[in-house]
Amino acid sequence: MATEVLEDLLEEDDEVVEVWYLLGWLFYLQLDKQDLTNNGVNFRKSAWTYLSKAKKLYVKLRCEDAPMFDHTEQLLAELGGEEHGLLLLLLMMMMKPDRL
């Protein structure tokens, strides 16, 4: 439900850093509850995607919420950064190439 509300907010305005951040954090928290199927890969990829977008928007819009930026950086580091996101994409392509 929270995901749906946040995604609806993105549809209204996709340049709200806090919405991207919250979606990324939400998917990151889902990793704790993941099973060992593709959901874990999908949660990790979604978390990385939303948090990366939050970070880019934070810089672009010159936001002033330093704790949010720091937490975004921390979560991205735990997810493995940009290189990890590319590896996840390759892994997903190998697992289900017809879905991409």
Determine the N-to-C terminus distance: 25 Å
Mean pLDDT: 82
Count of DSSP strands: 0
What is the string of SSEs from the N terminus onward?
HHHHH
- Summed up, the domain count is 1
Q: Which percent band covers the strand fraction?
A: under 5%
Biggest β-sheet strands, sense, barrel: none
Poorly predicted regions are none
| Anisotropy-based shape | globular
SS-based structural class?
A: mainly alpha
Proportion of helical residues: over 70%
Radius of gyration from the alpha-carbon trace, in angstroms: 14 Å
DSSP helical segment count: 5
Features:
100 residues; mainly alpha; 5 helices; 77% helix
Molecular structure report:
The chain has helices at residues 2-12, 17-30, 38-60, 66-79, 81-95. It is mostly helical. The protein has one domain. The longest helix is centred in the middle third of the chain and has 23 residues, at 38-60. It is globular, with a radius of gyration of 14 Å. The model has no long low-confidence stretch (mean pLDDT 82).
